[in-house]
Each structure stands twice: as C-alpha cells, then as structure tokens.
C-alpha cells in the first residue's frame, strides 16, 4: 500500500500554488532539453498508428500552475514538429486521490490546446490501459517514496534514525534502507509505465538532485529545538522520517536497466540557474519547502507542532543563506529521457 503526501492545498499564503517557484525554475530551466528530446527522439507517425489523438500524462501533477506550464510546452513542441492540424491532444493529470484536484481544475488555462482529464492514484502502480500513452512526464515527483522504509520504524534495529528526520548525516544502514525503498518503488513505477507506454513512446523525468537534502535538516533541527524546550516528545522525532529519496544518475541507471523496457536517450546532471538561490532568498526557498512538507508534518505531529516547526525553520535565514551561498552553483537537477523499446 502506498501513502499519499500531498502538497499544501488551495491558494492561500502557504499553498503549493503560491509557493512553487523553485519547481517552476527547474521546469523552465529544462524546457529546451525537453524540446530537443522530442525533436530528436519522437516519431509520431510510428506510435500513433491510425489514431490522431496524442496522449500525455503528467505523473505527480499537484495543483498547478507548473503542470500547466509543462503540458502546454510539450503540446506546442509536438505541434511545431509535425504541423498536423488534425492532431488532437489529451492530457491526463495524475496524482494521489487526496490531491487538491478541485484547485487544479479551477485554474485550468482557458486557452489550453488540449483536452484535460484527472487520473487519481499512485504512479507506483498501473493507471492506464496497455499501450495507451505516447508521452509521460514527471517533474519534482519521483523522489517521493511510496512509504517510509520499514526498517526505520523499529527502535531495536540499527536503522533507528535517532535525532534525524532524513538520511542526510545518517548511518549507512539508514541510507541503504532509503536506497532499497527507492529501488522497490521504481521497479513498480517502471513496470507500470512499460505496460502503459506504446513502443517508441517517450518518458521525461526531472528530479531535484541531492544538494537539496540539506534543506530537510533545517526542519529537523527546528523539531529538535522544540524537543529541547520540552514542547515535543523526543521519541516522536526519532520515529519520524521523511519519505523522500533524491536519486543520483547511478541510482536511476540501475532501476532503468533492471526493468529493461526503456532505452536511456539522455541522462544529465545540470545546474539550473535559480533567481531564488542567486539572490540568497532564504525565506522564499523555505516557503517552497514548507508547501511540500507541511502536510507530512501535520499528519505526524499535529497542526500546532507542524506550524511552529515551519515558522521556526523560516527564521533560520542566516544558516540557510550560508548553505545557499555554498551550494547555489552545484548540480541541482537530474534530467532523464527514456524511450520505450
């Protein structure tokens, strides 16, 4: 069974829709690479057969506006390449069942050039009929695991991650548990996509790289501050772990090759220029992370503790700014282009 970890809903102050600028920068920074991948690798005449409908999925779409940005770009590039006025586009927006689909569809662009459909469910399993998808896209999504590695939940094991909420700075046993869970999840992910994507179809995966893992530690330190002040039971922090793993090129190559149904057309670590990081805007950066993590924190600690931990983390601007100055030019994005064999 997979667990859902939705982004902050609605369009309020701390919502994902208002605080996803970093993800937008990642998408914008890879647009030319997506365009190049489609121009070089997509043969629409072979994959459409007698149909004139091109089916696209966005896996882990959340609530916008970034998903609309990505989908319109893909549609536009395909149109530019083929100049076929009879070609129609169907876009399937996928996320967990408790994703805020209401906000997503209320904000659908009026001038979109595709038909839109919502598909609730975990992308770690099957979502579509066999050989029905021509292009799959996933940005800033696959680092979310289906669940916390079970080894981390047992206080009697070496994987008990005392005082930490993630694998950064943890023991090798903890790191290996995260890697193993990622590999299990990706085995399900690629098995499902191999059934759904037509021969010759494409998949683009864009994932934040490991330089962002340190950001999780700032939230962990805020939780430990509450422990030291007697406001939170330490055992609760010890038993809490974020269900996220940021894959390396080696991690991704291993899971793709194990599946065997996709060829790797391109895999690149790249630095995506960030206005947020360049300007050392620690508050904006942490509001973005808050929009992603707050729901997980509320589910485990309750809203009062979660809100206070988030507020305290944003106040750690000096430490966060120092981290940003050191890391802003390091590779921050893993870009992967795959083709169904």
TrEMBL record:
One of its GO terms (molecular function) is S-adenosylmethionine-dependent methyltransferase activity. Keywords: Magnesium, Metal-binding, Methyltransferase, Transferase. Pfam families: Methyltransf_7. One of its GO terms (biological process) is methylation. Coiled coil: none annotated. It comes from the Eukaryota. InterPro entries: MeTrfase_7, MeTrfase_capping, SAM-dependent_MTases_sf. The keyword Disulfide bond does not apply. Belongs to the methyltransferase superfamily. Type-7 methyltransferase family. This is S-adenosylmethionine-dependent methyltransferase. It comes from Solanum lycopersicum.
């Amino acid at each position: 069974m997979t667990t859902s970890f939705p982004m902050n809903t609605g369009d309020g102050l701390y919502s994902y829709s208002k605080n996803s600028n970093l993800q937008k920068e990642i998408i914008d920074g890879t647009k030319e690479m997506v365009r190049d991948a489609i121009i070089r690798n997509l043969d629409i005449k072979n994959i459409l057969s007698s149909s004139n409908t091109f089916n696209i999925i966005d896996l882990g779409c959340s609530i916008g506006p970034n998903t609309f940005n990505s989908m319109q770009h893909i549609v536009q590039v395909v149109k530019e390449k083929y100049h076929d006025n009879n070609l129609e586009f169907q876009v399937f927006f996928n996320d967990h069942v408790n994703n805020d689909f209401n906000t997503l569809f209320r904000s659908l662009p009026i001038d979109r050039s595709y038909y839109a459909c919502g598909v609730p469910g975990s992308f770690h399993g099957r979502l579509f009929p066999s050989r029905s998808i021509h292009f799959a896209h996933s940005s800033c999504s696959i680092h979310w695991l289906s669940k916390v590695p079970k080894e981390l939940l047992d206080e009697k094991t070496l994987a008990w991650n005392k005082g930490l909420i993630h694998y950064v700075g943890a023991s090798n046993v903890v790191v290996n548990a995260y890697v193993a869970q990622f590999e299990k999840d990706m085995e399900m992910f690629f098995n499902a996509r191999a059934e759904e994507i037509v021969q010759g179809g494409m998949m683009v995966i864009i994932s934040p790289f490991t330089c962002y893992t340190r950001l999780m530690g700032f939230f962990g330190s805020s939780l430990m501050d509450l422990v030291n002040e007697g406001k939170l039971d330490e055992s609760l922090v010890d038993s809490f772990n974020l269900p996220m793993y940021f894959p390396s090129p080696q991690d991704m190559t291993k899971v793709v090759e194990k599946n065997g149904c996709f060829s790797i057309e391109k895999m690149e670590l790249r630095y995506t220029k960030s206005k947020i990081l360049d300007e050392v805007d620690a508050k904006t950066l942490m509001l973005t992370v808050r929009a992603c993590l707050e729901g997980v924190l509320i589910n485990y600690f309750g809203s009062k503790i979660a809100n206070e931990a988030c507020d305290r983390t944003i106040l750690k601007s000096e430490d966060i700014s120092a981290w940003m100055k050191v890391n802003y030019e390091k590779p921050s994005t893993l870009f992967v282009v795959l083709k169904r064999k």
